[in-house]
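Hello support,

Our group uses your service weekly, and this is the first time we've seen a run hang past the timeout. The protein is NAD(P)-binding domain-containing protein. I'm not sure whether the cause is the sequence or the server load. Input pasted verbatim:
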Amino acid sequence: MPKYVLTGVGGSIGGTAASYALEIASPDSTFVFTTSDPSKIPAEKLEAWKAKGATVLAASYDDPSSLKRVFAGAEAVNLISTWAFGHRCEQAQNAINAAKSCGVRRICYTSFVGADDPAPVDEMPFLPRDHKRTEALIRASGLEYNIQRDYLYIDNIPNFFASSWKFCGDRWLSNSHGVAGAYVSREDCGRVHAALLLGKGEPNTVYDVTGPEAVTDEQVFQWICSNLGVEGQFVDMPDEELREYWIQRGIPTSVFEPSPIPMKLCVDDLLCCGEMLARGYMAKTSNSVELLTGHQPVSFRETLLKLQPFFA
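Update from on-call engineer: The timeout came from a worker crash unrelated to the input. Re-ran successfully.
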């Protein structure tokens, strides 16, 4: 009766992974799902998980003792990167140490495209930096691993960017410079994560998790305007000009600062989204979603239709 521990189920990737793991697991599997605060999970979802035999407990990457309590007896555990930029490697080390102390054999990690960049970490784009460091910690641990390098989520456009368009004069200001990228859905990334936790991947293998096609930001915006009732203009800007534009309007310079304007990202995060496309990190597609889940990856159109209320 193998035991699997799925942490971070309070987030979108972890929550999707939890539901999908219960759907595809063998009947003799045992699941422990953890989050820092189970009371924040919708009651309906919590009851559905429990009805299928999952145990839901509180645990935190910042509390090694809580991880050891839930990792005990597990065959495989996971690690989902958090929003704690600059602190995520410490959280990862806590999870790795807890897993090793409990005799866990395998760990699965949600990394990010570009984490394999051979450049020194401080010369890399902002977003992959912590992921590169964490991947190195996992490899050095001696644990068997699977790493998924997720491309940028197409969900980010309605969740983070659409709210700023009216603020910018009905414009999407971008620095992707016309380069296409294979945006992926959070839904697919969550399902891949569950599949890897359950051993569907090859040992000590990294999987790039992509959408089905590479598209430019302008193509995505034109589709949104044609199909979701949005009116506006797509404007590509030089990186430094875009940085200065947002800083002058009060965008946070740190991920830990609240934003006083309708843009939820800090300036480095926002600029890096465009940079990841412009530098070609997301140009290639992969078959990882189909290989690991048996399903074709969700198109950007399908995801955006589901999230249509965010464009209102």
